[in-house]
Amino acid sequence: MGSSVVGDESFSSSPNFNYDYDVFFSFRGEDTRSNFISHLHMALRLKEVNVFIDDKLKRGEQIYESLLKFIERSRLSLVIFSKDYASSTWCLDELVKIIECKKSKGQAVWPVFYKVDPSEVRKQTGGFGEALAKHEANKLLTNKIQPWREALTFAAGLSGWDLANSKDEAELIQKIVKRVLSAVNPMQLLHVAKHQVGVDSRLRKIEELVSHIGSEGVNLVGLYGIGGIGKTTLAKALYNKIATQFEGCCFLQDVRREASKHGLVQLQETLLNEILKEDLKVIVSRDRGINIIRSRLCSKKVLIVLDDVNDLEQLEALVGGRDWFGQGSKIIVTTRNEHLLSSHGFDAFQLACF
């Protein structure tokens, strides 16, 4: 494994607070700016995550006050502990403010231990101990030493990532980006009408059937039955329950109506944009869309739900084959036509009347 999670912390913040930034980076520039930080920053920017990094500040008299303000106005903080982090009084002051924001308003704080042992940070031993000892020799810093130590100890006990014994920085960056995205862009659950008779029992049954298909390969699951029997409601409930298990998700509702009204190309664009979190408008034809979907999603574990499909062409344009998607993907289709499912290789389950 390229990384591991230590401690225990879940994301939380005030839902009513307005943020200027999604993520605040606290790091020692000389250790990490030109490699790990630049790669992580770029990966987050590509996902349209708004990151505050201190090169956005112009050095001046009010820089410290500005920095504290930006910490307060960030949704969460990533603290990258590297070997010389504690040598910087600037970094230590940042950390004190970050921990203060966590305690006072629930700001999420995630430490990354970049080639340092978490115990060195927690106990201030090794390079961290040496750095604090040098600061203690400076009488001008006497009142700051204890707050710095307390902040280091507290931060080292939070949930984060340890790269101390791994060289796989790319994998670590992917894990961090995934967790940040889940925090700043939480999955929007689909509305499922309340008091629908039998939804819970049916959902448990469908989950059981789907689990028996297996988690290997790409699963094609079809739900069929007459109109008004609850196929869409059940598909939404299943989507809400399992969506967090996938790298990308898309629920296309009323495929029959949308295909007739707007065409398959627009549905292809919607599918890609929902899963990739991009704004693609490059599909000029159905065949072009097929090629793009296959090339962009073939290595991703995705969940796709197509609701109310009534034509084989819709399946061919949107979920043409198992080789379009990564291992572990699930494609779920609701329809009134069992033949559509069997002709496309779906495991079909009939929903009967109550």
From TrEMBL:
Pfam families named in the record: NB-ARC, TIR
Tell me the classification of the organism that encodes this protein: Eukaryota, Viridiplantae, Streptophyta, Embryophyta, Tracheophyta
Q: What is this protein called?
A: Putative TIR-NBS class resistance protein
**InterPro entries (alphabetical):** Disease_R_plants, NB-ARC, P-loop_NTPase, TIR_dom, Toll_tir_struct_dom_sf
Ranges where the TIR domain occurs? 19-184
- Keyword Metal-binding in the entry? The reply is no
Which GO molecular function annotations are given, in alphabetical order?
ADP binding
**PROSITE patterns in the record, alphabetically?**
TIR (PS50104)
The answer, when asked if Ligase is one of the entry's keywords, is no
Source organism per UniProt: Cucumis sativus
Q: Name one GO biological process term.
A: defense response
Annotated TM spans:
none
